[in-house]
Structures
1.
Amino acid sequence: MAIQLPELPYAKDALAPVISANTLEFHYGKHHRAYVDNANKLIAGTPFEKESLEAIIQKTSGDAAKVGIFNNTAQIWNHSFYWQCLKPGGGGAPTGAIAAKIAAAWGSYDKFAEELKTAGITQFGSGWAWLVSDSGQLKIVKTANADTPIAHGLTPLLTLDVWEHAYYLDYQNRRPDYLTAVIDKLINWDFVNERLA
Ligand code: MN
C-alpha cells in the first residue's frame, strides 16, 4: 500500500500571479513528489507499510532512529494540507463559522492576519505557520522543518509553507511579500470552515 501523491486541487497556473506555475511545477511536481518517493523507499518492508500516513507520523515523531521516515511523511501530510488551504480568488477576511471564532480569539481579522504573518516571518529557517485548534481553542503556532501540529495533539485548520522553495522563484528573499499576498488573495476559507465542522 504505497503512499500516493495526491492530485493538486487546481491547475498549476491557477494561483498565479501570487504563486506562479513555475513554483508549483517545482514545489508540487518535484519537492512534494520527492517526499512521497523517499517515504515509500524508507517504509518498504517495514510494518509502516500497512499504517496510515497520520499513524506513521505520530509513531515516528521524536524518535531519532526514525527521523527520515518522520521528515518525509510529515512533509507529505503538510504539503497535501497546504494545497487545500489555497484557492484562486481566496484570501481576505473570512465568512462563516471561522469568522466569528477569529473575531472572538483575536478581536479582529486584521489582528489575526498580522499575527499569522508575523509567525511566518519569524519562523527562523524552514518551516510552517499554522492556525490550529487546541481542544477547541484557536491558536497560531509555527513549526520547524517537517514538524507538524498533528504530532502534538493539535488540529490544523490552516497552514502557510515558509520554506524558501515555497516562494523563492517568485519573491526571492521577500518572505513577507509572499505571506502578505497569500493571506490577502489565496486562503481557502471554505476549506478552513469545513475543518471546523
Ligand atoms: Mn514546501
2.
Amino acid sequence: MQRLAPALRQDNVPLDLISLIKTILAATKEISFRVSQADLGGLMGSTLDENIQGEVQKKLDVVANELFKDILLESGFVKAISSEEEDTSVAGNAVGKYIVSFDPLDGSSNIDINSLIGTIFSIHEAPEHMDADNPDMFKQSGNRQVCAGYVLYGPSTMLVMTTGSGTHFYVLDRTHGGYLLVQRSVRVPEDTQEFAINMSNQRFWQAPMQNYINDLLAGDTGPRGKNFNMRWIAAMVGDIHRVLCRGGIFTYPKDSRKAEQPYKLRLMYEANPMSFLIEQAGGLAMTSQGRIMDIEPDSIHQRVEVIMGSKNEVEACLGYYK
Ligand code: AFP
C-alpha cells in the first residue's frame, strides 16, 4: 500500500502543500489518540463555555481546536486559520502561502456516547495583498479550494481527501504511524435507496422537502416506485463517509425553527469541504438554488442549506423545488 506523500506526488500536489497536509495530519494522529483514551484522559463532558455558534463546547472540542491551531500557526505554511470554535480568523505567518478552515471535532454530541466523530479541513491559497489578520481572506468560494478532507475517528482512523484529482481513502496504520492509501478515486453510485435527514425537524421544512421525503417514505407503492432506507449519525463526517462508500443522499434543508438562522451547517467548515469530496467522487453537492461551491461567502461563519450525494437522487430532490 502506498504512503501518503508518494500518493500526493503522483497527483502532482506541490511540495509545500504536501508539507501542510502532513502538518494537519500530525494533529489528527494526536486527536485520534486522545479520542481513543476517552474517559481515561479526563476529556469527556462539556466545558462551561459556548462557542461563537452558540453551542456548548465539549472538552474535546477545545483540546482538538487548540492542537490544530498551535500546530498550524507554528508550521510557517499558514497565513491564517479559521475554526468553527474561534470567534474570528487567527493570524499566522505574514508570508504563509495558505489559509486553513477547519471543524476540529464534527459531531460533538457523539463524543460522550463513544460514537462517530471527525475532523474536517479545507485549504485555500492566501491572497497576497491582504494582511494576515484580515478575515476577508476566507471569503473565497469552495471552487477555489486546493485541498479538502476529513479524518474519521471510527473503528479505524480514516483520512478521506481530495486535491482535485479524485477523492481517495487512507487508513492510519498504527504500526508505522502514517496514513496508507487504501482506495484511489472513490466513486459515489449515481442511484441510491438510502437517505439521511433529521426527521424530527420535518414540521419545520419547506413544502418541497416535505413532499420529497413523503414520496421516499411511500416506498414501492408511492410515486418513486421503490423502498428507501434511512440513516442519521448526527455527525456529517459519518453520514458523508457512508454516502462515499455506498451512495445515498444527505440533506440538512432550510427550516423555520429560528427565523434568524434558517440553516444549520457551516459553509466553510462543513459544506464546502464535503462538496469538494463528493463532486470529486462523481456526486452532486447543492443547495435548492445552485451549487454549494459557487457560493461567494459573506462571512466566515456563514451557514447554508445542504443537499448532496448520489447524482440522480440529488437531481430527483431538486426537481421538487422547480
Ligand atoms: P456539532 O459538531 O456542532 O455537534 O454539529 C454536528 C453537525 O453540524 C453535523 O455534523 C451534523 O450533520 C448535524 O450537526 C447534526 O445535527 P442534529 O442536531 O440535527 O442531529
